[in-house]
Amino acid sequence: MLPLISTGQKIPTAITMGDPAGIGGELVLKIWKENKKFLKPFFIIDDPNRLSSLAKRIGLEIPIKTITHPSKAVSVFPNSLPVLKEIIEVKIKPGQPNPRSASAVIRSIDRGIELIKAGQACALVTNPIHKSTLYKKGFSYPGHTEYLAAKISSEVAPVMMLASDKVRVVPVTTHLALSEAIKGLSKSAIKHCAIITYKALKSDFGLKSPKLAIAGLNPHAGENGYLGNEEKLFIEPAVKKLQSKGMNINGPFPADTLFHEQAREKYDAIICMYHDQALIPLKTIAFHRGVNVTLGLPFVRTSPDHGTAFDIAGTGKANSGSLLAAILLAQKMAKNRQQKQNNETPG
Description:
Oligomer: single chain
Largest sheet: 12 strands, mixed
Radius of gyration: 21 Å
Number of strands: 12
């Protein structure tokens, strides 16, 4: 269990470096410049010299202040961007990933985790990494989610949610070929995904009685078995079992009618069967506001729902909406989780 954080304290949000050749650093610079007046304090774990050069490159006058401890971010934030120094031992060119930066990228993540464990950061926002660059240096995880779970020795498999102000979607299977994703579906997998989502909606999103919808796998949710029998084999049994536990969950519903505005108003989250079934509607509805949230961790972690965008890195053209949404959501989730912990603590 992570240490309780007093709601009276001001605990900043930690933001990781991400791939320094990508757009993460310039997005943080933009967000601080344009939104510092209404954002709660955050700091980035990065190389201050790199950020200073990057700010000049994209034409932003931003005071950057190196801090020695996360607590310093609170007083620094109104006037300067707080940076917890993580030296990059190679000169970075925007748009040109360099495996020699991999160690700094991973250390940035590790330090963020340790700061949260120590109660010195309230949430972790991760900038996009370039996995193939990290793989060349021995990184062996499919992505942030799996790495974070391994670092904290989580016994519960994390769940990926994509969230926006318009819709929340949770894929049961994630980064698998479609043929493999179908093989990966099961009653237990659906139940696990739904239970983790339900608990997170209560603890992190402040919902007292979450409402979940389950999407079918096949066209028309299988048409009573005429268009596929996966619904009858394991989706419907999973729904019935979850309902017996008192969860407000319904389905499976045909996916092609589940994401229009009136349908979305009925549910707090939609459990989808595979990656694109979840991400296509999310990115259509809220392309620049989507947030990747890892559910099931003992701390709050969010990330922008986009990659490193090497093609536009260093140009100042990148849209900061998704990272801004990730920071705002992380801070809100951390507050909700802390309030719930405080309410459940005796005395």
